[in-house]
């Protein structure tokens, strides 16, 4: 490939990437780099594509080369941070976002993704501060408002969380994740009908969304709509069979509906999937009190398990 034509090939690779043709995009990038290796934008795009293909080591290497060739470009360490975070290397991701922000202190994306990484490390106040800095740099940033809401809710500031989710939705109507989060916040505030409506709208926007079905089921159960709650939990499990929370919540709804054997099976599956979560075991121990075949001795044995 002639050096004078690499820009056209790069645009074609970017078009492939935007269209979801990831392997084609990667192939084009490699063809460009075979002819002219020292091209930071191409290396950066190759890294992004390879990350989405799950090739994190290859992705980090490509973006690392872009950084070495063009150390003043803040987008490259920000993208490296995304790759490292996807690989589970949260501390390294935090360092990469810090490099991006040292180069460009108003880099809204780096602030937001730093917030996500800090929250994963349990550094909630710092995460909230990072989201707020992202919004100072770019107020019309629905993802940052949504993540701010999640962090505020985790810190018990539900009114602020609901306000953040509403702002995200004002900026991007139909934003499924924000709708689902808003529904959870409204349920916590006792606005059950509004919560159900928000979860249903989230699912209308994104039908394959197991978490939203779980949250819808919880809202329906809070309203006493047990048949619909069970159906929502079952739909969540049809989409994500390994969701221990969905199994546990299904058990709760089945118990309330008087289906104790089915509830115990749901709790057993939740315990199997999440042995470190005490809730399913506790709920199971309570549910056996309602089973006609369990006498006091059997109940005591269950509680000692």
Descriptive overview:
The chain is mainly alpha-helical. Helices cover 77% and strands 0% of the residues. It is built from 18 helices and no strands. It has helices at residues 6-18, 22-35, 40-52, 56-69, 75-86, 90-103, 108-120, 124-137, 142-154, 158-171, 176-188, 192-205, 210-223, 226-239, 244-256, 260-273, 278-287, 296-303. Helix 10 (158-171) runs antiparallel to helix 11 (176-188). It is elongated, with a radius of gyration of 24 Å. The mean pLDDT is 94.
Gist?
The protein is mostly helical and 305 residues long. It contains 18 helices and no strands.
Mean pLDDT equals: 94
Uncertain stretches of 5 or more adjacent residues: none
What's the story with the biggest beta sheet? none
Strand residue content: under 5%
Q: Report the count of strand segments.
A: 0
Secondary structure: elements and pairs:
Elements: H1 6-18, H2 22-35, H3 40-52, H4 56-69, H5 75-86, H6 90-103, H7 108-120, H8 124-137, H9 142-154, H10 158-171, H11 176-188, H12 192-205, H13 210-223, H14 226-239, H15 244-256, H16 260-273, H17 278-287, H18 296-303
Helix pairs in contact: 1-2, 2-3, 3-4, 3-5, 4-5, 5-6, 5-7, 6-7, 7-8, 7-9, 8-9, 9-10, 9-11, 10-11, 11-12, 11-13, 12-13, 13-14, 13-15, 14-15, 15-16, 15-17, 16-17
Structure keywords:
mainly alpha; 305 residues; elongated
